């Protein structure tokens, strides 16, 4: 019997609730619709969710058995016992020769799946691994670090309730980033009392809805935002009363901003001074401003400094801890938290000495940590649920790095660009075949968690990640039945006795690291319905109730130890997603360090005080390429089957109509785009939305899949064939993928259909 089953979309961090109708074959999604019962998305989806069958059943190169690389470079299928014991033995060997810390862990989850990665710390501990990274360390670590310095706690924007929404290098219409984005954007746009300000060189779908589109020259946000902050100071638009109560370090900031050459900076950004002034005044006059910055600036020149000055703009106008501004959120995991060490202090990567922010080595130094004869270089990599050969800067160099490693293990659902270079590939169940969840729980005032139940059965030969980690940890010999027995005995006395026994485990720091697998093997099997993987969430729920007792109580779970237990039960049984915490806006202040904002970050103020004019070589590189734009049919590399796209199937290079006309190019004409890092042929799409001199390539293209005859088809250009690892932020090492100096050559007059 077919029935609608609740789950979620896995294509962006919003994870909108959906319902699926499984076809009579028991494998395909016959229909997909938004889930009205989901507490955050409430029935909303964008166009992409409806294509999820292509993730599940498309031509993806689905993996269905563990693979081992043969000496000739091909792969052979092996059984799970062989795979686990060989991988464990080889990880141990690497550890014995070079220390476990020479095994680098990368990934742990994509846009929809973090539950598996929550078990990975046990595998890391079992083999002595220490260093790790993920995609967050090539986009968000600058903002994390700045947030840690200014607030001591990560904050997010309450766009939904804002009078003024301020988007800096962010196109929520396509990329989302907050629930029901398209609906919210349209509401703001329609409301005469609310406004939208967008900084983007492209007239995006979001910019089109904006009241103020500051269509700046690419890479000049630091100047434009400095000018805006300086206008606030010059015209006495700052909220002095609020700042006196809530902030420290104002004088140091004012001293720098008073010296900003406003007109000159607007000229550098190439935006009309009057437009900048009007937008700034609108922002200052608002009761509430919610600001969202994203890759347009986080992967661009001065990225970390821009994250800082962007925050100064809304802090100087008093926009924190009130409805429609920014808030410090709760959650089931600590995403975005960092200690906020001063530059040069704090943990560092072993070879390059790069700062480790939020526990993550900057992605852009990974190849440098491998391609060297430094004694502490990484010798092996354990890669889970990510595709670094495609997603990290300079794919050619990343391939070279994987080739020199002694061992590469990949856990994925598909034969990806990265898996192809592995020594062992372990096949995972898809996100619809297992219990799954994300820790992207950033909502406010009601925060949401969604434990998705499987809606399809997994094929033989694949395993969910928690089981893979448990087997690896056991194969390492660090956990046996003897370790499980006391916890199981306690469980027989009930959960409270179990909780006490588990606290005993946590008291031993070494054992505490193995806690995920201890929970999985003891509590897991008692949860019923094959929900073993939810075991980790039991500890996470207790932790959430301990860290945010009032918020958990307000959400209806009571107080004390009981609250953690009730919250966990609600998570386990709430198939549509549940409210985990409920806050008021004021609570933000309790979460900030010293209940205050620290405005001055000396290192970054020094940069702002002394910005260079321009160092571009426009003769050699007349264009700036943004490598990796989010479009209607891109989703990182999660959907591999090119047939999922209803438009832009080849992934065009967008350029301004004026440039196209000058070069005699029409839609579909092939050009060769060349950068310092590489060169590729791509069809162009002239557009009046683009600034002259600017080029844009979509993300998520350049994937290879086999057609039914086994012939490999690659669709579009993989952006990181064109990027360079050393084009990166000075403070946290994030890449400047949106600012790739480029040149164009026409290839032929032949057009291809786009
Ligand atoms: N459709 C779709 N949605 C997605 C994803 C996807 O693959 N496809 N991926 C998800 C992920 S992982 C992320 S991190 C988010 C990213 O979400 P976004 O950051 O919104 O996505 P991008 O399109 O990469 O970049 C945003 C904007 O930056 C602009 N930009 C380029 N150069 C500059 C500049 O110099 N200054 C300014 N101010 N802006 C500039 C671009 O024109 C673009 O409109 O999207 C998520 N959502
Ligand atoms: N040039 C350039 N590069 C970029 C960007 C850009 O804008 N420009 N954007 C960057 C950003 S913001 C991000 S977030 C990264 C994303 O890049 P990555 O972090 O590498 O992640 P994804 O492309 O999302 O790939 C997720 C992987 O998980 C696999 N997968 C799917 N479901 C499961 C599952 O259930 N289990 C397991 N084990 N695997 C699964 C997929 O097959 C895929 O290989 O790309 C970055 N790279
Ligand atoms: S891709 Fe669209 S439907 Fe899917 S989670 Fe994101 S916003 Fe929701
Ligand atoms: Mo991302």
From TrEMBL:
GO molecular function: 4 iron, 4 sulfur cluster binding; metal ion binding; molybdopterin cofactor binding; oxidoreductase activity
A GO-annotated cellular component: membrane
All copies of domain 4Fe-4S Mo/W bis-MGD-type, residue ranges: 2-60
Pfam families the record matches: Molybdop_Fe4S4, Molybdopterin, Molydop_binding
Keyword terms: 4Fe-4S, Iron, Iron-sulfur, Metal-binding, Oxidoreductase
Keyword Oxidoreductase: yes
InterPro entries, alphabetized: Asp_de-COase-like_dom_sf, MoPterin_dinucl-bd_dom, Mopterin_OxRdtase, Mopterin_OxRdtase_4Fe-4S_dom, Mopterin_OxRdtase_prok_CS, Prok_molybdopt-oxidoreductase
Protein name (Swiss-Prot/TrEMBL): Molybdopterin-dependent oxidoreductase
Lineage: Bacteria, Bacillati, Actinomycetota, Actinomycetes, Mycobacteriales
